[in-house]
Design a protein that fits this description.
about 250 residues, alpha+beta, Beta-lactamase, five-stranded antiparallel beta sheet, two-stranded antiparallel ribbon, 8 helices, about 20% strand
Length: about 250
């Protein structure tokens, strides 16, 4: 018998994606601020709405958001794929805002995020912005974010490739400068078998992380919300998942 994991997070979940089995949960249906894990939903909605090579012009407003900048300048033109790299690897809020206002009107994009939540039967999620900045009406749950993460990994191969990349080089063109977003998900370096997803932090959310790893044909997915040590918690939970016998 595997003893229950000791973690710092307010909420957590462990799912064996291969077996389709819930292995552990702690306050997994409680609503919390979810910080940049929101960007997983933003990415899927963007991929639903537009081809990856869609050109997006960066608006001035996108360059004003704090913090976590990809480093965009107003007027630069990048493809959706390039902006997704900056949003998902180094968590650029500027990239999230550029995406949200570059495909459709920003308010419509946020509506599409909530429609996506409804389509995925997320019971405890509501979004008011594309980046996960703190807002009383912006929240999710560990179990909802596990559904989001599992859906991205299963149904969005290009996004799966991005969240699993350590670094992506975006060469300079006549329309934008050089970018080289590096993934802030340390598990890609530290935890063998990691295939992605996304860390996040805000004052209200604390440290959050959705992470998945594959070993010996099994893929384990974990989500931690409101932690002080999200990478340590995720490592503990992934270890717990892999130690758990399959049924």
């Amino acid at each position: 018998m595997v003893s229950p994991p000791a973690i710092k997070a307010r909420a957590a979940i462990v799912v064996d994606l291969t077996a389709g089995q819930l292995l552990y949960e702690q306050s997994s249906a409680t609503r919390y601020a979810d910080a940049s894990l929101t960007k997983l939903v933003t990415a899927m909605v963007a991929a639903d709405l537009a081809p990856m090579d869609t050109k997006i012009t960066v608006p001035e407003s996108a360059t004003q958001v704090e913090p976590n900048h990809m480093g965009l300048s107003a007027g630069e033109q990048l493809t959706l794929r390039e902006l997704l790299a900056g949003m998902l690897l180094n968590s650029g809020n500027d990239a999230a805002e550029a995406i949200a206002s570059g495909i459709v009107d920003r308010s419509h994009f946020v509506d599409f995020m909530n429609q996506k939540a409804a389509a995925l039967h997320l019971r405890g999620s509501h979004f008011t912005n594309p980046s996960g900045l703190d807002d009383p009406n912006h929240y999710s749950t560990a179990s909802d974010l596990a559904i989001v993460s599992a859906t991205l990994l299963a149904d969005y191969p290009e996004l799966r490739s991005i969240v699993g990349s350590k670094d992506i080089v975006i060469p300079a063109t006549s329309q934008h400068k050089y970018f080289d977003p590096s993934n802030i998900n340390r598990l890609l370096w530290n935890y063998p078998g990691t295939i992605g997803l996304k860390p996040g932090y805000t004052d209200s959310a604390g440290y959050c992380l959705a992470a998945a790893a594959t070993r010996q044909g099994r893929t384990i997915l974990v989500v931690v919300l409101g932690s002080t040590q999200h990478f340590t918690d995720a490592t503990t939970l992934l270890d717990y998942g892999f130690a758990h016998p399959t049924h």
